[in-house]
Amino acid sequence: MNGKNDVELKLGRFVDFDKGDVVVGDSFVNGIRTKKVNKLVSYAAKVDSSTIFPIRGNVYSDGLYYTYILVGNPPRPYFLDMDTGSDLTWIQCDAPCSSCAKGPNPLYKPTRDNILPSKDSLCTEIQRNQKTGQCETCQQCDYEIQYADSSSSLGVLAKDDLHLTMKNGSLTNVNIVFGCGYDQQGILLNSLAKTDGILGLSRAKVSLSSQLASKGVIKNVVGHCLSIDAGGGGYMFLGEDYVPHWGMSWIPMLDTPSVDFYHSEIVRINYGNRQLKLGSWSSRAEQVVFDSGSSYTYFSKEPYSDLVASLEDLSVVGLVRDFSDPSLPICWQAKMPLRSVADVKQFFKTITLQFGSSWWIVSTRLRIPPEGYLIISSKGNVCLGILDGSKVHDGSSTILGVIANLVCRHIDDKHLVVYDNENQKIGWTNSGCVKPHRSDSLPFFE
């Protein structure tokens, strides 16, 4: 990212659009067959398997973490932005493409048999909130996603084989539904220089994890551990096999049927020992969204203003606001260019989010040290990776982006974050991000 206008905030939602304005290649319009393909003949009644994906990327300057999947026959690789705030997985495709970035891999090229018919249940699910409703006579299922940063993706739904390597080493082919995106707009096109699309991992029925769970391949659990090391990276897993038995801090997901985000409720935010305001009253609860597709963290108006006010006295330690640095809205210049957050972390305090009970001693808390909300810009300045969220999403929620998912006590201590859709809870624990391993006998996660 070259400036603050490039900050990504996904939280994608399907929107209504005029189907008469959609331009799609002739191969999509005429003679579409609706043969269903599913190579999953049967699965054992007890699901006990997981699949793991390597992760690459960083918060700054890429602003995203991505993995790859293998799709089609023969299987072809596609690099996808890992996004727990998006419902639909989509890949840039030649349909033909009217607006696609030049990504790392050739565009996905569907056949007529790949196009999902409008009568499919997942098409109904996607179009249920659109004003025009489902099109009974259409031969294809159109989608349009509008992201919180005003980017968008327009396309049709396709189905093809996803090739997975399971925990036990077996290879599995699963027929999945995903978006064939032929028109991308906005700053999303910047990230598509490194990726071919987005991996949707929300709670929605159309998300990849939900589809695999509905077919009996995995339990509906998503986990990731993102590295803060210079090379970036980490891993992501789908299924419950890599969830540790001990050491996890769990909070309940809010049960909101119309919302597919991973969200919970906080009752308090502290900067060091100072309690930040929530809403109009300091004791008012506020929703918090866990979103791996957002580069940075967003606070609603009151806690953001309070946090900025708490940082106004940094000049006494030699940090002066640099308004010429476009990396982020708030950056400070030191006497000498900075190389890492470690050079200035002693001047900043830990941010603590308190969940559930207002009683400090019995509540669950998520601590975000300076490494979890600061970045060093290309100018050698230290910048605040928490932004004003009053004009994004619903304007009143805290959004924890990937920078907060890197929270750690020291450079080799990262957070594993788990979204357990089976038990409707979100959890985290300190973990190394090199290799996942669940211990069945020791009370720690290596």
UniProtKB/TrEMBL annotation:
It comes from the Eukaryota. GO terms for molecular function: aspartic-type endopeptidase activity. Keywords: Aspartyl protease, Hydrolase, Protease. The active site is at residues 83, 291. Residues 65-429 form the Peptidase A1 domain. GO terms for biological process: proteolysis. Belongs to the peptidase A1 family. This is Peptidase A1 domain-containing protein.
